[in-house]
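Next comes a single protein record:
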Amino acid sequence: MAAEKLIINADDLGMWPSIDLGILAAWAEGGISDSTLMATSPNLPAVLHAAEAAGLPAGVHLNLTNGAPLSDPAEIPALVTPEGVFLRRQQWQHPLPIPQIRLELTRQVELILAHGWQPTHLDSHHHAHNTPEVLAVTIELAREHQLPVRATSDAMRDALRSVNIPTTDHFTIDFYAAATVERLIQLVDSCPGGVLEIMAHPGFISPDQPGAYRDDRQRELDALIDPRWHAYLAEKGIPLVGFREGAR
């Protein structure tokens, strides 16, 4: 079998200018069908303007692990370092305090909405919503704003659908750090039907970009816009759709 429909979502919009430009290039070349935006981006108005001008759909990339929060750090002490930036997931002390998570993530979604942007869906940076407390708040926000949510596992898919939150049938992270046309084709061919989301992180190479995932972003972009990949999709008749069309 193979996937019947495909969502290719570009995470990390707003994280860094070279990443933003790579995501916009992937969209312009038909390499992605949706994206998710970090409300904590210091360049949020400019990023939203660029996305709107390009017609790029974008959800909210809920962030509890990168950079500075929107909240006063004193309001969310369990989520931040003494310097006031987010802890890494490995540093979290469980169980996490749901009221602090709710405060920060509500502010992130509400800031996007305050800019007049209608998100396509919710997902999270570093899969933070794999954690039960973060998932609980994500579900609250999804129900309040009637948004689909990325399901990172079959169990999460079933949990979301049990409370009438749309999501995809299948999800894969296996394009990450293995970005080739051959891998894309294998992921689609091995999917047991339905709608598949492939998580992607396209971007241009920038030496000042923070983090270790730099050259891989360019490799992802190259694979996503490769004519061989698009010829495969056309031959198989597999459409690229966004979360608004693909989640159920």
Summary: The two ends are 20 Å apart (CA to CA).
